[in-house]
Design a protein that fits this description.
Blueprint: H1 4-24, H2 30-44, H3 53-68, H4 83-87, H5 89-107, H6 112-119, H7 124-133, H8 138-164, H9 183-202, H10 208-222, H11 232-248, H12 255-287, H13 291-298, H14 303-312, H15 317-347
Helix pairs in contact: 1-2, 1-11, 2-11, 3-9, 3-10, 3-11, 3-14, 5-6, 5-12, 6-7, 6-8, 7-8, 8-12, 9-10, 12-13, 13-15, 14-15
Length: 362
């Protein structure tokens, strides 16, 4: 058995090579999509790949600082405009989760806890932990979430490229060149990453490694203390690491099991993207906010992944990231409680004349 170091280096090497190939082919979000596809292929083929969570956390913290740097003092006047779109996330999460649950339960034959926690639009780690503790299959929940993120990351950039004429070759690089940052900028940005991550973890904030640095970075940029952003090279490295991490989630599973999980998750993802489009159109009609921004803000992908898509598309990454943070908090806080309440209701149904607890399949 290979050591963790060797497996980590192998995974990053495969991911970097895949990212370079995608970049050379001028694919959208090249470094992340290339790394994700290459590592996923290697993992399913049996390669011993694994990425230590500490490595992902470091680069996700860099991404958090980058997202926070998108907040500018002049943006304070716009934050009030986001109220309706942020509030609508509650209805989006409920509709998306319900559609996914019915699909997994009725059409895929998964049991109730597996269907429920696999259908939640966010909170991968928390949904696996809570779902497995309540009787769900952690493999199915994990692969369903990983497949959903993979599919969304693949579909959205190409969709924007085809429908909106997004040209990755003509987009400016994200972040300043590496050598353009002074030591004061490095110290301030590094402090945002370190202090933000440690504070958020101590407070048990969901997605602490990206949310904490983002909030600290947003605060100092809103205050006008700095305009510095993490260098483009570090952002590209973060894309490779995040893409590699997604691919490594498929390690240790059979090709048949993975293909079935991806196929079934693909159906759920299509339905959830339908809810995303409907929500974006409705909120756009009410608020006038740009529909493409809303599509990305409501998409059922991961915070880190969708934020990178926003950066690659030159969208308002602060707007997108803020909505995904709220979505994650809603899912992590409310989804387990709602499931427990539902189970308690089903448990007392035989007393009301039902013959079998949960016989209605939810």
């Amino acid at each position: 058995m290979q050591s963790k170091l060797v497996r980590g280096l192998l995974a990053l090497s495969i991911g970097a090579l895949g990212g370079w190939a995608a970049h050379a082919a001028k694919l959208p979000l090249a470094w992340m999509i290339g790394a994700m596809l290459a590592t996923t292929t290697a993992a399913v083929a049996g390669a011993q790949v694994a990425l230590p969570i500490q490595v992902r956390n470091i680069f996700v913290s860099v991404l958090g600082v980058m997202l926070g740097s998108g907040f500018r003092p002049e943006m304070l006047d716009k934050l009030g405009e986001w109220g309706i779109s942020l509030g609508s996330l509650l209805f989006y999460c409920a509709a998306s989760g319900l559609v996914g649950f019915v699909y997994f339960r009725r059409f895929c034959g998964y049991d109730r806890p597996t269907s429920y926690f696999a259908a939640m639009p966010g909170g991968l780690s928390e949904m696996i932990l809570v779902g497995s503790s309540l009787g769900g299959d952690p493999r199915v929940i994990s692969l369903s979430h990983a497949s959903r993120v993979l599919i969304v990351v693949l579909v959205l950039p190409f969709g924007f490229q085809i429908l909106l004429g997004y040209d990755p070759a003509n987009r400016p690089p994200v972040g300043a060149p590496l050598l353009d940052l002074g030591w004061q900028d490095w110290a301030m940005l590094g402090g945002c990453a370190l202090v933000g991550a440690l504070t958020a973890r101590a407070l048990k904030v969901p997605a602490a490694m990206i949310v904490g640095p983002m909030l600290i970075s947003a605060a100092i940029h809103l205050a006008g203390w700095t305009k510095a952003t993490p260098p483009a090279e570090l952002v590209a490295a973060a894309q490779v690491v995040v893409g590699t991490a997604i691919g490594c989630r498929f390690a240790g599973t059979s090709v048949g099991f993975v293909l079935r999980a991806v196929r079934l998750a693909g159906g759920a993802t299509v339905l959830m993207l339908g809810v995303t489009m409907g929500s974006a159109v409705a909120v756009h009609a009410i608020t006038g906010l740009p529909a493409p921004y809303l599509v990305l803000a409501y998409s059922p992908g991961g915070l880190a992944e969708m934020s990178l898509v926003a950066l690659a598309l030159s969208f308002d990454a602060a707007f997108v990231a803020t909505h995904h943070i709220v979505r994650i908090i809603l899912v992590v806080v409310l989804a387990p409680q709602l499931y427990r309440l539902t189970e308690k209701h089903l448990a007392v149904r035989p007393m009301r004349g039902q013959t079998e607890p949960g016989g209605g399949d939810g």
